Amino acid sequence: MLSISIVAYKTNIEIFERALDSVYVSLSQNSSFLQHSKIIIIDNGNQKNIICSIVKTYIENGLQINIISSMNNIGYGRAHNLAILNSPSKYHLILNPDVILSSDVLKLGLEYLEMNSDIAAISPKCFDVNNNVQYIAKTYPNIFVLLVRGIAPKFIKNIFDKKLSKYEVRQIVDKDKISEIEIMSGCFMLCRTEALKKINGFDDRYFLYFEDFAMSIELRRLGRLMHVPSMKIIHFGGNASRKGMSHIFFFISSGLKFFNRYGWKFL
Predict the structure, then answer these.
(1) What is the pLDDT of residue 214?
(2) Exposure letters 151-173 (e unless 16+ CB within 10 A, then b)
(3) Residue 253 located in a structural domain
(4) Residue 134 domain-assigned?
(5) Which residue(s) pair with 126 in the sheet?
(6) Rg (CA), the chain
(7) Using CA atoms, how far apart are residues 67 and 5, in angstroms rounded to an integer?
(8) What is the CATH number of the domain that holds 99?
(9) Which of 90, 167, 219, 247 lies 20 to 30 Å (CA to CA) from residue 118?
(10) Residue 267 falls inside a structural domain
C-alpha cells in the first residue's frame, strides 16, 4: 500500500532515530498500514553500520525496512529514485530523515488520497522545533524573493514581508483549510506512486535543491497538489545559506537549471 523513501547523508543520528520512531508509531495506528508498508533507506553517506543498528528493533517488531547503500553521494533526487521507480506500492512518501511525524499523519493522508482520485500529492502543515509554523508550500519562485529570503538581513525581510508572504502562501497555511498549492517541499511529499513513475521520479540533473520544485510542476500536469493542514510534522531542517559554501553552490547551480527549464521570473 505505502512505500517510504528516506535518503541519509551525514545524518544526525539522534534526530533520525526520532524520525524513524515517529514513522513506526504513525504506521502502527493501523495494523494494515504496518503490514503493507515498506521503508527504503538510501545510505548516501557511508553510515550503513549505524543505520542497521538503528533499524534492527523496528524490523523485529514487524516493520519492513530495506537499506540501499551507495559508495558515493549520488544526490538527493537520484537516491530517492532508487526506491520510487522500483516500488510496487499505491502510494509513496518522500521523507527527510529530520522530519518527525504526528501519530495520525499517515492515516489522514492516505484516507484523503483514497477519497480524492484527482489529487497527485499532498503536503502537511509543518512546524519547527519551537512550534513555529514553517511555510513549506510555495508559489512559483522569483529571483528577488529567493535572494531576500535566503541572504537578506531581518530588517530587509521585514520591508518585503508582503512579497515573502505571497511566495510562502501564508494566507493559505494560516487559514488551516485544505487548499491547492503550486510547489511542495521535498521534506514530506505523499504521492501516488503511479504519478511519480509517469514523470520518472525526480529529475536527477538536480544534485541538491530545486528538485522538489521541478517535481511539483511535473506532478501538477497529472493532478492537483494539496496542502492538508490536519496532517502535521516537525522539520529540523534549515536553509542553504546557513549550511556553508557547498550548499550555496548547489543551490545556485540547481536554481540555474530550474529557471532555464521552467522560465525565469525576476520580480
Answers:
(1) 98
(2) eeeeeeeeeeeebbeebbbbebb
(3) yes
(4) yes
(5) 134, 233
(6) 18
(7) 10
(8) 3.90.550.10
(9) 167
(10) no
Domain span at 229 = 2-262
Cα 143–chain centre separation:
22
User: Angle, nearest 10°, between helix axes 143-151 and 245-262?
Assistant: 170
The neighbour count for residue 185, using CB atoms within 10 Å, is: 23
Q: Is residue 138 part of a domain?
A: yes
pLDDT tens, position by position, 47-88: 889 999 999 999 999 999 999 998 789 999 999 999 999 999
- Closest by alpha carbon to 66, among 90, 32, 95, 42? 42
Number of domains in the chain: 1
Alpha carbon distance 55, 213 (integer Å)? 31
Whether pTM > 0.90 for this model: the answer is: yes
CB atoms within 10 A of CB 26: 24
Residue 4 burial (C-beta neighbours within 10 Å; 0-12, 13-18, 19+) = buried
Helical H segments across the chain, by residue range: 13-27, 31-35, 48-60, 76-84, 105-115, 143-151, 154-159, 161-167, 170-175, 193-198, 211-219, 245-262
